[in-house]
Amino acid sequence: MTTKEFDFKYYIRSRFFPHIWCPGCGHGIVLGSLLRAVHELGLDKNEIVMTSGIGCSSRISGYVDFHSLHTIHGRALTFATGVKLAKPGITAIVPMGDGDALAIGGNHFIHAARRNIDITAIVMNNRIYGMTGGQFSPLSGLGKKATTAPYSSIDNQFDVVELAKSAGASFVARSTVFHATECKDLLKKAIAHKGFSVVEILTQCPTYFGRKNKEGDAVQMMESYKNNTVKIGSKKLETNPELIQRGIFVEDTQKAEYCEAYDNIIETAMKGNA
Q1: What band does 45 get if pLDDT is binned at 50, 70 and 90?
Q2: Which of 142, 183, 186, 202 supports an S-S bond with 33, CB 3.0-4.6 Å?
Q3: Residue 90 CB contacts under 8 Å (≥ 6 apart), including other chains
Q4: How far, in Å, CA of 225 to CA of 52, rounded?
Q5: Could you state, in order of their start, the residue ranges of all structural domains in the chain?
Q6: What is the pLDDT of residues 180-234, one digit of tens each?
């Protein structure tokens, strides 16, 4: 852990502040937790590459003073894969929203997990497409309202954790913006992990999801994360199995990392051992 005092301004591009997120948006809390994780890991910010696509969550790559790529919608993980293969020594972080991760970007998500490439994917789950007008997303859920589902959605939602586990991610965790310190600790472990890491962070969108579904303002939505989530294995699940679990679901340190396996193949080829 670094001994220097945390200085938020050291890690951001101050010229882009104030940020463009709506009042009450949880994404700023995610940014704060992430920067504190980077600080406590003692990472050189010049050795970090952050890649994002399009959406509210993707603005993070413009705010941090890291090497960053603000790419096209749904393709953040593909760009990050290319960067990581070209420079395996860098720390690759990919913040994504509902669409970048699991709608247009869903195919790339499962294959990055399958390959187990050393990238940290942060899925900022606000259950809505916020930047483009409040349409429902793959994470909105059955019976939820949105601008494109005024009479409620009939689509079932993805479970990010179960999908990541099934696809082969070797580190899978979940937290919320209410649990900001826990969130920071999980991000630290995810970034330090050698392999494909997924951290789902429940983050509120009072502007669209909260208003449409009468879930209240930002404070009330954050209180729901306090009241409706528990740590993995909590006894509260015995009486209320609908509670959302938080914590680390997968931490596999034995699975081969993709870049290392690729280097081994190159070495074999160079020796002519077909």
Answers
A1: very high
A2: 183
A3: 47, 48, 49, 67, 83, 84
A4: 26
A5: 16-271
A6: 999 999 999 999 999 999 999 999 999 999 999 999 999 999 999 999 999 999 9
pLDDT above 90: residue 249: yes
The domain 16-271 belongs to what CATH superfamily?
A: Thiamin diphosphate (ThDP)-binding fold, Pyr/PP domains (3.40.50.970)
pLDDT of residue 225: 97
Task: Please indicate, yes or no, whether the overall pTM of this predicted structure exceeds 0.85.
Answer: yes
Give the tokens for residue 237.
């699940």
57 Cβ neighbours under 8 A, 6+ residues apart: 27, 30, 95, 96, 97, 100, 122, 124, 126
Q: Is 237 in contact with 96 (CB distance < 8 Å)? A: no
Using the structure block, give the residue that is written with the tokens 């395996």: 88
Residues 6+ apart with CB under 8 A from 240: none
Angle between helices 106-115 and 76-86 (to 10 degrees): 30
Distance CA 8, CA 32 (A): 8
User: Taking the C-alpha atoms of 111, 260, 58 and 181 in order, what is their torsion angle to the nearest 10 degrees?
Assistant: 110
CA distance 10 to 6: 8
